[in-house]
Amino acid sequence: MKDIKPKLISLFKKGYCTPQIARIAKKIKEPSTTIHYNIKKLEEEAIKTYKAVFDYNQIGEGHCTFLLVNLKEEKYGQPEEIAEEIAKSERIESVDIVTGEYELLIKLRSEDIDDYYAWIKEAIKKYNFAKTISLTSLKQLKTEFVEI
Amino acid sequence: MKDIKPKLISLFKKGYCTPQIARIAKKIKEPSTTIHYNIKKLEEEAIKTYKAVFDYNQIGEGHCTFLLVNLKEEKYGQPEEIAEEIAKSERIESVDIVTGEYELLIKLRSEDIDDYYAWIKEAIKKYNFAKTISLTSLKQLKTEFVEI
DNA sequence: ATAAATACTTGAATATTATACGAATAATGA
DNA sequence: TCATTATTCGTATAATATTCAAGTATTTAT
Question: How far is the CA of A112 from the C1' of C20 (A)?
Fold first, then answer.
């Protein structure tokens, strides 16, 4: 037993996938070389990566939370720095700087609520958040444009 | 000119991609047949699909909004039905039933604020939302686990 | 503790698929 | 209109995935 699956999951979260040119060519009834050409162009312009979407319950990341954050005054004017730092973690699905009452909106995945609590305690300390609101997902119907 | 790119974008949002077995095999230094075997297992258990992640500014979906929704009383108890209906649209990135003040949290992408306004007006009418709060993304640092 | 069943690993052979190339056609711009 | 650039697409080739079969490890039941 080599325990390859965790490594695959980690790689597939960010990339290591590629388009199925032959299948697309069949689907839209065009020559595969034409599809190939168009995909390469699109990759230059607009495609960041190809990746897997998981049934997160099955990989121990079934607990999903949206976190609204107020930064402390000294960081209020330049939220990007903190946002970039937060974005680096593998459990963070998205980070946005948003309009309204809060500065940041973070979507993250954890194993369970205990795991989440450990993370948020650590994050409040580390990033010196002024205030946070956690919206816990009770049911996920769609994620990353994929219905689950 | 066959205008193939829009079709590709639509297909790539949900699938039509596949893992790069040879590349992964090289990366984690295992035989490609072993990688193949493990991926097939993982697909049965936990992988929903393989898809592309876009630079959404480049495909006319740069405007991103998180929408908090209160449903009308008659729908408050069974939000799933509406949530599933909302999830079907291609511009919807995620739909969650959440804890707290609001019942639904929807993440969606539009071309610009006018496009968004048209959508939200229509949605309020169609789904009979009681109240909504829109959090507009000013800057997206990470989406779908991919830094952008 | 042992045997049987099941799951995982792997190399060799084969089938599929992506990519490179070149020629033809179409679109763009001056 | 003519020249330049972008796109289409068939053929040939290179790369890759998949099948198969055999061996090894792990788990399960008794």
Answer: 50
